Amino acid sequence: MHHQYDFIDLEIVEQQDTLIHCRARLSGDVDGLGLDPVAADAWLHFDGIRVHLNDVDSPDAALARLQGFTDIDGLVYSPGNDSGWFLFTKLLAS
Questions:
Q1: What are the 10-residue block averages of pLDDT along the chain, 94 residues in total?
Q2: pTM (two decimals)
């Protein structure tokens, strides 16, 4: 089922190589259905960050915009999509 919440608090607790430890809490029952807040805590595999913005048409521009929101150190462009978005993945040591 799909339910709407008004607020999400997402915390990236730590990262180990390509695994990230995340905590999330959703609250604010938008539809008034009597839904309780929802919480989750998990280790997730980091596949990368997708940047899809109408005014961004190059990987360099996408990475520059992403830098305004997160540390981009270690992220590299991963070519191969034609969907209008740019994927940046973690550069792994060889």
A1: 87 89 94 92 92 92 93 89 84 57
A2: 0.64
